[in-house]
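Intended use. Records like the one below are meant for learning the mapping from a protein sequence to its folded structure. Do not use them to infer anything beyond what is encoded.
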Amino acid sequence: MTTGTTSVYNLNCRLTSNVFTDVISHDTAIHIEGSHNQNQIDNNIIWDIRRSEPGRGGSGIFIQGTDRLIVAQNVIGKVENNCVTSDAVADRLILGRGGTARENRVFNNLFVDCGKAAIEFANEHNQADGNVYAGMPEGFLRIANPPPQQWLDLPAWREFHGMDKNGAMAEWSGSFDAARLRLTLTGKGDLAKTPIFNGIDTDFFGTQTGPARIAGPFGGLGTGFREKLVDPRPLLPARMVDGGAR
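Structure written out for the chain above:
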C-alpha cells in the first residue's frame, strides 16, 4: 500500500483459495486499501462475518480507496453487513491522487444470506456480472454516489445500469463448521454456466473448469453438498506457483 510519495504499491496481487470464517470484525474479512492498479480476489470462501459492535464491521470484502480490483468466483455467505462494499476516499492522496473506487469488477460470485447488501458500489463506474444471489433482503444491490443512493433489486440493477445481465436469483442456503472446516451448501436446480472471467479456469481445489463455469469457487457444485471438507492448506504448494492476477 502506498502512503505519501512512496513508489511501493499493490500491483498484480492475487488472493485465492482461502477460507475466512467465524470472524468478528471491526471492519471486514478482506480489506483492500489505497490501490490504483489491478489486483484480484478469487476462489475464496468467506462465511459468517459478524460485527464487532453495533454499526461497525461485519462486511465480507471492503474496497477502500481502490480502483480496478477484481472480485470473482468467491462464495460469500452469512455476512451481517455488506458482502462487497466500497468507498472512494478522495482525500487520501497516493502517488499524486486520491482513490476513485472506479473500474472494480465483481463477477461470477455466489452470494448467500447477506445482511444488508450483496454489492454496494461507491459510484456507477464499476461492473458486475454473472453473480448469483440467494437469501437477499430488499434493496440488496446499491450505488452510494451521487446522492440520492440507489437501493435496487436485480431487475432494476440490469435496467438502469446494465449490470448482471448474466446474473440470477436462486434458492440456496448453507452453514459452516469452522472448527472442522466443513461447508454445507445446498440449492434448488443447477446453476447456469457463464464464460470464465480473466482466465480463472481452476476452482478452489485447483480443478480445471473448462471455458465456462458456474458462480462461486467450486467447479462441480451441482445442487450442492453436505459436510464437504474445504481445508485450503493442502493446496498451498500449487497455489504458491500459480502466479498473480492476470
